Amino acid sequence: MNKQKIAMIGAGSWGTALALLLARKQMEVVLWDHDGDHVAQLAVDRENKRYQPGHPFPAELQVSADLATTVEQADCVVMVVPSHGLRTVYRAALPHIKEGALVVSAIKGIEIESGMTMTQIMQAENKAGKQLQFGVLSGPSFAAEVAERQPTAVTVAFGDTEAAECVQRLFSTEYFRVYTSSDVIGLEISAAMKNVIAIAAGICDGLNYGLNTRAALITRGLAEISRMGVAMGGEPQTFAGLGGLGDLVLTCTGNLSRNRTMGLKLGSGLSLEQALSEMKMVAEGVKTTKSCYKLASDLEVEMPILEQMHQILYHGKLCQDAVVELFQRDLKQEIDGSNN
After folding, report:
1. β-pair type (152-158, 76-79)
2. Rounded distance, CA 236 to CA 244, Å?
3. What angle do CA 302, 303, 306 make, to 5 degrees?
4. Strands 152-158 and 5-9: what pairing?
5. C-alpha angle 200-206-208 in degrees, rounded to nearest 5
6. Is 132 helix (H, G, I), strand (E, B) or coil?
7. What is the CA radius of gyration of the chain?
8. β-pairing verdict for 5-9 and 76-79
């Protein structure tokens, strides 16, 4: 396992944390970023002072702005770029990825134009039929805590059991526990949608609603995530696991959550433009709200929280009005596969 070579595509907070994790295991890791100046600074500092300060790079961790040379010898390519940039970056990398490589998405989002998940995009781009294995790594994992070696548990999903177990062994450490799954689509839908619900949770906190409200939102948010995930072909049990409920609870309640922070700003009265201008890192849930709203419409899946979030973010609806509308909807049974 020590001879494994990993290409980490994206030198943000999460990409750097995963690169540190693997390099600390004496894996040969190359951390790529599109910003040449950023890469040059990483090489000088031997630390990502912008996104993960205080964590010096092990000798095994190198940096590069050359995408082709970064991926060409890699046994495992981990994609950690913003979801809206995946297709462009992956398209450029694909010709240089070697046959038989494992390609892991550690991205949480849905493409707006196509409604595709990240692995669906990569499979669609693989028009030449190169022999690659596509999977996803997800779960309740703030990047800063992973970099600090805080005990964390996540899930990796591949359609192929052997590939899943290989990536499981690759990433597992004494503080980073990895479970396997075969439900790639369920894990990806959970990862994307939880960011939308986390913005809603932040809005509730920004409006000074209490813990009752938060608990209700998380629970009904999980119902919506499950409904969409099952409609996409996901397994129901996935949504009760680490990548479903676990990641949802973390992102809706944790102070390190970028999406909850976005919601807090909106709930306190800022416009979307004002809130975005104050954010130093990407809150994926903003774009994911648009892509999931379109996907839910195409699938004819009822998702009231998602609908209200779309109204708030893209039509200027007042947060308080959205909450009132949710509570004034027709009364329902709780356990019903078609109602919320």
Report:
1. unpaired
2. 10
3. 150
4. unpaired
5. 110
6. coil
7. 20
8. parallel
C-alpha dihedral sign at 24, 141, 45, 94: positive
Beginning with the edge strand found earlier in the chain, give each strand of the sheet holding 76-79 in spatial order.
61-64, 28-32, 5-9, 76-79, 102-105, 133-138, 152-158, 176-181
**Gap between the Cα atoms of 340 and 7, Å rounded:** 42
* Rounded CA separation 165/17 (Å): 21
Q: Which residues are catalytic?
A: 194
Sign of the dihedral defined by the CA atoms of residues 189, 190, 195, 196, in that order: positive
- For residues 22 and 29, is the Cβ–Cβ distance under 8 A? yes
The tens-digit pLDDT sequence of the chain (340 residues) is 446 899 999 999 999 999 999 999 999 999 999 999 999 999 999 999 999 999 999 999 999 999 999 999 999 999 999 999 999 999 999 999 999 999 999 999 999 999 999 999 999 999 999 999 999 999 999 999 999 999 999 999 999 999 999 999 999 999 999 999 999 999 999 999 999 999 999 999 999 999 999 999 999 999 999 999 999 999 999 999 999 999 999 999 999 999 999 999 999 999 999 999 998 777 889 999 999 999 999 999 999 999 999 999 999 999 999 999 999 999 988 876 554 5
DSSP string, 66-92: -HHHHHTT-SEEEE-S-GGGHHHHHHH
| Mean pLDDT taken over the chain | 95
Q: What is the pTM of this model?
A: 0.94
Q: Which amino acid is at 106?
A: A
26: left (phi over 0), alpha (psi -120 to 50) or beta: left
Kindly give the pairing relationship between strand 28-32 and strand 176-181: unpaired
Distance CA 86, CA 109 (A): 10
- Amino acid code (one letter) for 338: S
Question: Residue 282: which of 43, 51, 36 has the closest Cα?
Answer: 51
Contact 263, 205 (CB under 8 A): yes
> Which of 133, 87, 139 is closest to 110 using CA atoms?
87
β-pair type (76-79, 61-64): unpaired
246's tokens: 């676990």
